[in-house]
Design brief:
Sensor_kinase/Photoreceptor; alpha+beta; single chain; Beta-Lactamase; transmembrane helix
Length: 1035
């Protein structure tokens, strides 16, 4: 069209010029005449323009013709393109148009890089095939492709094949790249694929690239897929048919024969001869070889069968007869044949087979005999048997399955009427004499007619169960159901309904229901069950263990309590000897205790277990038991076994032991507390006198040094009394800021003294200060170290580490967020069994023969009272690790030991109370040395009297110092309560040898302003007095 534009424009120009020339000529013709030359020239010009006008018209006409032809060609081209597009879209062949230009470009780059053999390159770099797969771009795909792949648009198809390419796709892609590498433009390849229906198929792929200017254009490659699945399936079916016919001839093991009525020729196969015992060479194809060998009694029936068939009275030739073999014996033969007739109805050829049915005939005879024997057995069987024909029911089930029913029970529930109608397909075909006796009928006819009265509603459930079983492929059901006798007597029967298998096939025409009368048995079972239930309830309710045995001592039964005692389950224990299940020892001597079952059976008497008997359960754990064993007799008084009754008295024995031990511990605690208190009083006197001696000996350096050593010894003795007090009363800790390493090392080394265990310490630099009771924490360390030493009797190395640790709220669940000191004490001993770890801190729990079970309980109590937490980890054979946390006070500074020196003089009036005269004398001297005016009294009542006198006469006491405990008198706690009533402004200091007493730890609660624990030094006393008088806080 673009080429016709200039031609069209030229035509229009010429026409315009012609029209202009005509106009000028007309104007000239109307003007005045001109000279002849001018007229000739004008005429000539006019003709020129006329010719040009005619030429323009001609060009315009040619242009119109060409434009029409081009329009027709364009329309034809569009029609052709539409046809091609419809053909592309609607062809049953799957066609994909793909762009391989990027692949071709990449292959050219490989060639430039020196690659000569693409297959070798792919073998060395197998990942390249998958990596370059996405270079192929899908341009178009017809509807067949989209339908086969289950997508709607080309983009989805491209995403589908690019998603996860299969190995088959990658192999095909590699072959396509090989074709491009070789410069080929076509490639055909047969592929196996799996469609969207997951079925495998075959297809033929034709890959072709067009030529553009003599070169392959890999930018528009067409890939056509032709489905060969039907062809391959047809070929496979043809092969199956050929194989089936070939195998059929071999499989039926028949001899083939043929008779030609036109030519009179006869053919018999080698197998025909073999059936009657002749080799191929011993018999000809003559017709006379057949009739003489037929048994004389069968010749007439054979001839009649053939005549009836050839005359059209029978649809086929089939007859059974006996034929003589080479050895003279006769064999049963089945002869079958078909004839080929001409248009007049005359036979032309008769072809048939001979089959050896001799064994079948014998089997049929044997089967007839067997059926007769079965019928006799059926009629005289002592068990009731009913025969049903279920072929109709089976056919109905098959129809349901063919109609798409998946769940039989769902269908039966939804269609009860249909199901009830279908049950009529199960027809009763027979019953034996025992069935008549079971229902009280006199004849089979009577029983069948009364069947609706005999069967109860249970039969519907049985039939439903049978249908369900048949639906699932099972051929038998069994259970119990109720029926009624003709006289109305209810009976309980066991039934088994089964479909017999005959020759490997289920025979639904001859199914059997076997009925066993359980009426009497059920009554007996119900009575026994009731008795058994009463016995079982009694045995389950018993706290005692009950075990029954036979006469050989083998376990027949044990109840739950006995299972818990022995650690054996009933199933595991039954059949074992009683000695294996009940392993008993004497608690003191550990000697075996014989199981009493044999003695009870032999003596026909009850045998009691000896006292202090211990039962070892299956895991070896001991239990203290009591028990007795009695023989079991039958109705003839013969011993048939024994019953052993066991009672666990472990807890009772433990409680008795704990009561005794607690009583002893209470006595020891009281004694230890009294000793500690009295010892502290003595130490107070000694400490006071040492202090006085030190103050009077400042000029004597050597004497002062010895007195200081004596003072340290007294303080060490005070720590020992503190441990006694902790054991005796377990009081609240009296805290002070201390350096923990010193306490831990001292306590650990003390506990390790004389052992084979060495301790290694790991202490973090800059360890925070702890505010603890030194004596109690020392006791914690000693107990844990002693525990480690006992775990390593052969010696070894234990480790103690200390470090600072800031815990958040979730780090240790039992502790609040804050700063703590973490102390870890670990050993390399035998370890603790997992089942013991949960009880390791329980009071009185111990695994040691000589242990008291108080050591770790005391540790746990002390740590908890310090607002700390303790944990334990252990592994058998590897050792144990205790880890505990104590609150830290990072900013606190421990108080440095004070050296005794003359304190600053103090003034005031002090009222001092203690029941010990030596302590009063020592205190009087110390207080006067400090500058006080002192009055000493012996008990709290004198304190109240003296203090009241001071208030009344105007000589008020500035301070009262009182002992906490006064035997037989008013102690400091009670006296302070009365003083506060007398004078709310009273200031008091409590002093006691019971340093762990709650009053000492919480003295302000009881009205005191300060406290000083016995024994105390002059500096301790002076510090306490100064702090109280100045209104400071001792804490």
């Amino acid at each position: 069209m673009k080429r016709l534009v200039p031609l069209r424009l030229t035509g229009w120009v010429l026409v315009s010029i012609a029209m202009l020339a005509t106009s000028l000529y007309a104007q000239d013709a109307g003007a005045s005449p001109a000279p002849a030359q001018a007229e000739a020239w004008v005429r000539w010009i006019g003709w020129v323009f006329v010719v040009m006008a005619l030429g323009g018209l001609l060009v315009f006409w040619i242009n119109l013709r060409l434009q029409g032809q081009i329009t027709l060609q364009t329309r034809a081209l569009r029609i052709s393109e539409t046809r091609m597009r419809n053909l592309f879209e609607n062809t049953p062949v799957a066609i994909v148009e793909q762009d391989f230009s990027a692949v071709a470009k990449w292959l050219d780059e490989l060639r430039k890089q020196g690659v000569r053999d693409l297959s070798v390159h792919f073998a060395a770099h197998p990942e390249l095939v998958a990596a370059k797969f996405n270079l192929v771009r899908v341009i178009a795909a017809n509807r067949t492709v989209l339908r086969l792949t289950g997508v709607e648009v080309v983009q989805e198809y491209e995403g589908l094949i690019r998603g996860v390419p299969t190995p088959a796709m990658l192999d095909t892609f590699a072959a396509q790249m090989q074709a491009i590498w070789a410069g080929d433009t076509e490639m055909t390849r047969e592929l196996r694929y799996r469609g969207i229906d997951s079925l495998a198929g075959h297809s033929l792929m034709h890959w072709s690239a067009p030529h553009e200017d003599g070169r392959p254009d890999y930018g528009r490659v067409q890939v056509a897929f032709t489905d060969l699945s039907v062809l391959r399936a047809t070929e496979e079916k043809l092969r199956d048919v050929e194989d089936r016919w070939r195998l059929a001839v071999i499989g039926i093991n028949a001899g083939i024969w043929e008779y030609n009525f036109v030519t009179g020729e006869t053919f018999i196969s080698d197998r025909w001869r073999e059936i009657i015992g002749y080799p191929a060479s011993d018999m000809t194809n003559a017709r006379d070889e057949f009739w003489p060998r037929i048994h004389p009694e069968d010749v007439a029936s054979v001839r009649q069968a053939m005549r009836d068939y050839l005359e059209g009275h029978r649809s086929s030739y089939r007859v059974e007869f006996r034929m003589q073999c080479k050895d003279g014996n006769y064999k049963w033969i089945l002869s079958r044949g078909m004839a080929l007739f001409d248009q007049a109805g005359k036979p032309q050829r008769l072809v048939g087979s001979h089959s050896d049915i001799d064994e079948r005939k014998r089997a049929e005879e044997s089967l007839r005999s067997s059926e007769e024997r079965y019928r006799v057995l059926f009629e005289n069987c002592p068990v009731a048997i009913i025969e049903y024909d279920l072929r109709g029911l089976r056919a109905w089930l098959d129809e349901l399955r063919a109609d798409g029913v998946a769940e039989f029970d769902v269908f039966a529930d939804a269609n009860p009427q249909v199901f009830a109608e279908a049950l009529k397909g199960s027809a009763m075909v027979g019953l034996n004499r025992e069935t008549l006796e079971l229902v009280g009928a006199t004849s089979k006819t009577e029983a069948i007619e009364a069947l609706p009265r005999i069967l109860t509603s249970d039969m519907e459930k049985v039939r439903r169960a049978l249908c369900h079983a048949l639906w699932e492929g099972r051929n038998a059901i069994e259970g119990e159901m109720r029926i009624n006798a003709l006289d109305g007597t209810p009976r309980r029967v066991f039934y088994r309904w089964w479909v017999p298998s005959l020759g490997g096939e289920l025979s639904y025409a001859w199914t059997q229901v076997v009925l066993v009368d359980l009426t009497g048995i059920k009554r007996t079972e119900e009575a026994l069950a009731a008795e058994r239930e009463r016995l079982a309830v009694t045995l389950r309710a018993m706290a005692e263990g009950v075990i029954t045995t036979d006469t050989q001592g083998r376990v027949l039964f044990l109840n739950e309590a006995a299972g818990e005692l022995t650690g054996w389950t009933e199933n595991a224990a039954i059949g074992r000897l009683l000695e294996d299940v009940c392993v008993m020892r004497h608690e003191k001597t550990r000697l075996p205790v014989a199981a009493p079952a044999a003695a009870a059976v032999a003596s026909h008497a009850v045998i009691d277990l000896p006292a202090n008997t211990v039962l070892l359960d299956r895991q070896g754990s001991p239990r203290v038991i009591e028990g007795r064993c009695a023989p079991i007799h039958d109705m003839h008084s013969h011993a048939i076994g024994a019953v052993l009754v066991l009672r666990d008295v472990t807890e009772r024995a433990r409680l008795e032991g704990e009561i005794l031990r607690a009583s002893k511990l209470e006595s020891v605690g009281i004694l230890a507390g009294g000793i500690a208190h009295d010892f502290n009083n003595l130490l107070t006197v000694v400490m006071g006198n040492i202090t006085l001696a030190t103050l009077d000996s400042q000029a004597m350096a050597s004497a002062g040094r010895w007195l200081q050593d004596a003072e340290r010894g007294v303080m060490r003795a005070r720590d020992l009394t503190q441990q006694l007090l902790t054991f005796a009363r377990g009081g609240e800790p009296v805290r002070s800021a201390v350096r923990l390493p010193e306490i831990v090392k001292e306590a650990a080394n003390f506990a390790l003294h004389g052992s084979k265990v060495r301790c290694e310490f790991a202490i973090e630099d800059g360890l925070w200060t702890a505010e603890v009771d030194k004596g109690q924490i020392g006791q914690v360390v000693q107990n844990l170290v002693i525990n480690a030493v006992q775990a390593m009797p052969e010696g070894g190395v234990m480790h103690i580490s200390m470090r600072n640790q800031h815990l958040n709220a979730l780090a240790v669940r039992q502790l609040d967020e804050g700063n703590y000191l973490c102390i870890v004490i670990s050993d390399t001993g035998a370890g603790i069994r997992p089942e013991h770890l949960a009880r390791i801190f329980d009071p009185y729990f111990t695994t040691k023969q000589s242990g008291s079970g108080l050591g770790l309980a005391t540790v746990y109590s002390i740590v908890r009272k310090h607002q700390g937490h303790i944990e334990v980890e252990s592994e058998i054979g590897r050792g144990t690790r205790f880890r505990f946390w104590l609150p830290a006070v990072p900013d606190a500074r421990p108080t440095a030991p004070e050296v005794a020196h003359a304190p600053d003089n103090l003034t005031g009036r002090v009222l001092f109370m203690d029941d010990e005269e030596p302590i009063r004398a020592m205190a009087d001297a110390l207080l006067r040395r400090l500058g006080f005016e002192v009055t000493c009294v012996a008990d709290g009542r004198e304190v109240l009297r003296v203090y009241a006198e001071g208030l009344s006469n105007g000589t008020r006491y500035d301070l009262v110092i009182m002992d906490l405990t006064v035997p037989g008198g008013l102690g400091g706690k009670e006296a302070m309560s009365e003083l506060c009533k007398l004078d709310p402004m009273v200031k008091g200091i409590v002093s006691s040898g019971y340093s762990s007493d709650p009053v000492m730890a919480n003295y302000r609660t009881y009205g005191f302003s300060g406290m000083v624990a016995k024994p105390y030094r002059l500096t301790d006393l002076a510090k306490a007095i100064r702090t109280v008088l100045e209104g400071g806080d001792m804490e």
